[in-house]
Amino acid sequence: MSKSNATLLTGAAFGVLALSLLSGAANAQEASETAVQTNDSDVQEVVVRGFRKSMGAARQAKKSANITSETIVAEDMAKFPDLNLAESLQRLPGVAINREGGEGRRVSLRGLGPDFTRVQLNGMEVLGNVDSPMDSRGQTSRDRAFDFNLFASDLFKKVEVRKSFSAEQDEGGMAGTVGLYTAKPFDYGTGFKGAASFQGGTNSATKDFQPRSAAQFSYNWDNKFGALISVAYGKRDTEEQGYNTYGAATIRAPANNVTNLSAADQAKAMNGELIFQRGNRLSVWGSEQERLGITSAFQWRPVENVTLTLDALYGKFTNNRSENHLATRASLGSSSILGVATPHSGNQVAPAPSLNSIRYDQYNSVNYVDAAYTVFATETRRQEAENTFNQVVLTGQWQVSDQLTIDGHIGKETSDYDLPISDKFYTEAFGGLITEYWGTSDAHNTYKWDTTDANNYRAHEIDFSATYQTTELENAELNATFVQNDYLTYKGGVSYRSFSNTGSQYTNDDVKKTEWEKGTWGTGPDDKVNDYAIVFDKHDDQDWIIVDWDKALDHYGITRTVALQKPSNYTVKEDTTAAYGQMDWNGDFFGKHMRGNVGVRAYETELTSDGFMSVKPSATLPAVVTAVQVQKKYSGFLPSFNAVLELSDSFQIRTAVSQNLNRPGLTAYAMQGSVSEENGYVKVSAGNPNLDPYTSDEFDLSGEWYFGRVGMLTAGVFHKKIDGFVVTRMERNVSYASTGLPENLVAGVVGSTTVNEYSRPINLNDVKLSGLEFNAQTDFFFLPAPFDNFGAIANMTFVKSEVNKTDTPLTGMSDVNHNLTIYYETSTWGARISENFRSDYTIDGGGFNSTTYVDAAAFWQVTPRIRLTLDGVNLTDEREEQVNSFYNGFGQQGAKRLWNTTTSGKTVFVGVSMTF
């Protein structure tokens, strides 16, 4: 039995056990609740307020939906259950998130990564990138994913996760669709309604004061006209620190590096049999974050059967970041442990590193080094990042008659990501080092020199860069619904969606004493750093020297300047028109109630990719860049079927069968790359705008049992067969015409020219993805007082994948996720604690080890309108461990190695909320 099949069987056993154990308790709860409703009105008050109210509303939405879905509902006006929407979503079965600085950032659904999860805001698709401070986590990435830390959760009334597809949904989002909904004035009663909250917190790593505030005010003029505005503001510092390694490779050691080693170790090192890290670093990433969100909604009912809604949302997230490293540093293209020290002004300033002793594992991977004269560098990095988001949507609904309804929306949104400053200052130093590395998480450096003495450092390199991205979306949709009778409803609609992403990057690397003086490693002046040095003492393991940026630039008389690098520019634009037809039914099936829908969606997408190809005509001529544009059009049909069979008032079976698609990542579509010809040998490397979208056949089956006020037990299986996963492939001896590039980018290279090496992303892999989901929630009313106010929510998801008929995990896929929340709630106070586990998963170049995060929340209802709150985030200060794997010089795969390990501290907030 394969490991993945065993995992799924274990999950199935868990589900059966959970159902059997909880069924008796649930029946007891129903009986107990009936008695409580009859005899104790105070307990009734508990159920309709706070967290239980949110659970009950979410359960009802899930039960009544025709598709497979999950819902989270705000506990009250401007009161979402968690501080961050991603952290709320991770409580749902099948959902996994990654965190940045301890805060939820992106969502993966049912084993597929964030690029496969479509996010919609007030009915429109939304993309808003807030990049990571770490290169290994996607620095300035351009993709289709949405960063949930852009908005505070206080701005939203409901979040819905649609796991199965129906024709009335926009195509895309193969993993599923997350729908975000802001509040509307007609959601509340007539007259004035308002709520406000204020919180203050601190983080154990930064020890700063972190204010958060939110307010929402609404006025409803007898459901004829309404206006609502909400504002959320927050400010916080984050700090992640840890240890990381990079650049594992086999190295042939020079003879003068290894004279102190044994003969056997000398032979291994000099023959290139050993794997050394290019470098290792102690690192601290700091961030000063400020978040502002404003929503407004206006509703107008000019006549009884027409409702118009205008939604506007503004979000701004600023992030001033610092990044500081003390690193061993590669020099002259070699390993940092084995290379020679960097010369200055042509003079060697330190002897070549020599190895006193080494140890290595069964993979010949060096995990212990005692070295003299190691080359060190410190990196002082500063960044100023800003993301601004704007959306305006006009929605209309016209109840033409009792049978016919017409609705639709038109809207536009923009997301601007600006990184105007992303600069690095490197210093260099030399000294002895003992570095130890054991397994995937334990590592330690011992420095045999004074890392806090500025006299040991010299200036080495200054790099300037800036990055800008803009994403725009225009969307229009018109739908009609015709109710033929109580059993049949017909739906149809058309839509248009125009999406574009544009980006550019500016750099000025290796700046020296004057603004335009260029150099490479080892040719800069022998500059001391004493005039602008700072002792950096924020890392738990070691202190070292960094630089004061303003003093350093002033010291050298450097004005910060960057220049446009055209190969980094490209634009991807997608225009999609779509139409659908769907029939909903609601009737009897062999004496049981059955409801559902069946339909088909047609789409046509025109893709335009603009970029630059770097062209090197010959070995003697300089490289140039040439603008290139490629267009592609594709279309298709997506059938769907969803059905719910209600075997009783409390138990139903749900099934879904459909086809869906997912468009490839933006970087794969990007028209950028290079063309070269030298002595008749032609090489081409490029993106591929001719990629087809991924397509999938999808199946869902689940059983759902609902009991009591909030009780629910569900178990389900899902399966996706996905065609056309993108991989990068190099082909030999193909025609230039097959590349789709314009002729004569290089003189004489035309359609009939043979391309000796052609690298680009292609649709290649076929993937099968299967999983099991289990979900349970209940109050414990069957327990004696005061334990009857307890309750629990638990879910578990098992996923396995098969790539080209091999048992291979997909990138970003965790094969196990589980969540557990225990809560206690009365009419005046309550508390809950939540655990979230995500098993290890891979990313490009490596992966992440499993994590378990613990969050908590508590409240005290001082008066009917005033509530005191206490929230804790990442209470165990969970460590994120990022690893990579490698192959040794003989093609044998080695063990996982540490890449990054970081902690971000625990955060606690206290606050007060009020309703008006």
Ends apart, CA distance between termini? 61 Å
Total helical segments: 7
Low-confidence parts lasting 5 or more residues at pLDDT below 50? 1-48, 513-525, 618-622, 886-893
Number of strands: 45
For the largest beta-sheet, the strand count, sense and barrel status come to:
32 strands, mixed
Helicity range: under 10%
| Morphology | globular
Beta-strand residue fraction = over 45%
- Report the average pLDDT across residues: 83
What would you report as the Rg, rounded to the nearest angstrom?
A: 30 Å
Structural class by SSE content? mainly beta
What does this entry look like structurally?
It is a single chain. The model is unreliable at 1-48, 513-525, 618-622 and 886-893 (pLDDT under 50). The strands form 6 sheets. The chain has a 32-stranded mixed beta sheet that branches. The chain is built from 7 helices and 45 strands. Helix content is 9%, strand content 57%. With 916 residues, the protein is mainly beta.
Write the layout of secondary structure elements.
Blueprint (H helix, E strand, L loop, with lengths): L2 H37 L1 H7 L2 H15 L4 E5 L11 H5 L5 E6 L2 E7 L7 E5 L2 E2 L30 E7 L13 E7 L8 E13 L6 E12 L3 E22 L2 E2 L12 H8 L4 E2 L2 E25 L2 E23 L25 E7 L5 E34 L4 E35 L3 E7 L9 E26 L4 E24 L15 E2 L4 E4 L7 E4 L1 H8 L6 E2 L5 E20 L2 E25 L7 E23 L4 E12 L3 H4 L3 E6 L2 E6 L7 E14 L3 E21 L2 E2 L18 E2 L1 E23 L10 E14 L12 E10 L3 E10 L2 E3 L2 E3 L2 E13 L2 E8 L6 E5 L12 E7 L3 E9 L1
Parallel strand pairs: 4-7, 26-29, 30-35
Antiparallel strand pairs: 1-6, 2-3, 4-5, 6-7, 8-9, 8-45, 9-10, 10-13, 10-44, 11-12, 13-14, 14-16, 15-16, 16-17, 17-18, 17-19, 19-20, 19-21, 20-24, 20-25, 22-23, 25-26, 26-27, 27-28, 28-31, 29-30, 31-32, 32-35, 33-34, 35-36, 36-37, 37-38, 38-41, 39-40, 40-43, 41-42, 42-45, 43-44
